[in-house]
Design brief:
Rossmann fold; 5-stranded parallel beta sheet; 326 residues; 2 domains; binds flavin-adenine dinucleotide; alpha/beta; 9-stranded mixed beta sheet
Length: 326
């Protein structure tokens, strides 16, 4: 790869650096760039510098204007970063595939007339920059090589990479960048942000995930999943069928249009195993499937398959776990 730095767009959510930035910085360190740098926009950016440095950023560009959270990120973000890109000439900018990441990458692509690759799963650099990504939902995995123009812009799915901090090193350089917030960006404002209240570990970070689908038959049966997940110190997920039925909130959805999880153990209960679901959980180290249909596609992926009624099996599992913990 040529000599320009690799940038990572970092978000701060509820006062914490979002995990996607740390995953991307970890990957960026392995790409052979002379420098790995981060960009963080909005209040909280200054407090994020240390964490971004521990994950590999040698420089963090910050702009703490409240407009980056009160307005949509894309317009102000692209206008603020464009002059910086012109002077710093990054080779590559990695974005998390979040709402703000997508908004900003799309706006930058339009502003700088550059291509952007979305839904990235992996990236390689060498003579060319090549991104592996999913298209047409998740039915196709493709490898796309960027042409000569720089920077290359790519968005990555959550958990595409695993975050790992560096041993202690020097603090990164902080460079404050003036915010460019045009009047036209003020036409739309964010009126509310809310984070669903969760008990137990966050779904994306849990080492055990117990997920339920349409086969659970009714919303009340999710209580059983919560009991089992609680005994295993895990989190509860769901298929889209369960979410669309209004049984559980969208924040619990695993899959293409939901969350990507990579637990040690994933227990799929009454879930058929549609590709749009499995793309969000196939990275689990061990998959257990409970389904009454022996032909259910989920069994092709499962390390342990149990053919039977999910509620009966879950009650037995709960009772066994209770007897062991008591
Ligand atoms: C663009 C797009 C995006 C999508 N994104 C997602 C996504 O992010 N996440 C997602 O999950 N889906 C997603 N879907 C939907 C996906 O295609 C499937 O429709 C969905 O995953 C099915 O959910 P399910 O397995 O719970 O339901 P079903 O497919 O109806 O399967 C229910 C399963 O339960 C079993 N069962 C029934 N009763 C019992 C019982 N008593 N005990 C044990 N097993 C039982 C059945 O044998 C069956 O296998 C998406 C679809 C599209 C088109």
């Amino acid at each position: 790869m040529a000599n320009g730095p690799v940038w990572v767009f970092a978000e701060v959510v509820d006062g914490r650096v979002a995990p996607g930035a740390l995953e991307l910085l970890t990957k960026a360190r392995s790409l052979g760039a002379a420098d790995v740098e981060a960009v963080c926009l909005g209040p909280g950016a200054r407090e994020a510098v240390g964490e971004l440095g521990r994950h590999g950023a040698s420089t963090v560009y910050i702009s703490i204007d409240a407009g980056f959270v009160e307005l949509l990120m894309g317009g102000p973000g692209a206008d603020t970063l464009a002059p910086l890109i012109a002077t710093r000439k990054p080779e590559l900018i990695l974005f998390p595939g979040t709402h703000d990441g997508r908004d900003l990458a799309g706006r930058l692509a339009a502003k700088l007339d550059l291509p952007v690759i979305a839904n990235g799963l992996d990236i390689e650099t060498g003579a060319a920059i090549t991104v592996t990504s999913t298209i047409f939902g998740v039915t196709q995995v493709v490898r796309t090589e960027f042409g000569e123009r720089r920077p290359a812009l790519a968005l990555f799915r959550p958990k595409a990479f695993t975050a790992s901090a560096l041993p202690a090193g020097p603090a990164p350089r902080t460079v404050e960048v003036p915010a460019v917030i045009d009047e036209r960006h003020r036409r739309a404002r964010v009126v509310d942000r809310s984070t669903p209240v969760a008990t137990g570990p966050a779904l994306e970070e849990a080492t055990v995930v117990v997920s339920g689908g349409r086969g659970l038959q009714e919303p009340a049966n999710f209580e059983l999943l919560h009991e089992v997940a609680g005994l295993l110190h895990g989190a509860v997920g769901a298929s889209r069928a369960a979410v669309d039925a209004g049984w559980v909130p969208y924040s619990m959805q695993v899959g293409q249009t939901g969350k990507t999880v990579k637990p040690t153990v994933y227990i799929a209960c009454g879930i058929s195993g549609a590709m749009q679901h499995t793309v969000g959980m196939r990275g689990a180290q061990a998959i257990v499937a409970i389904n009454r249909d022996p032909e259910a596609p989920i069994f092709k992926l499962a390390d342990l398959g149990i053919v039977g009624d999910a509620l009966t099996v879950l009650r037995q599992l709960r009772d066994e776990l209770r007897s062991r913990s008591g």
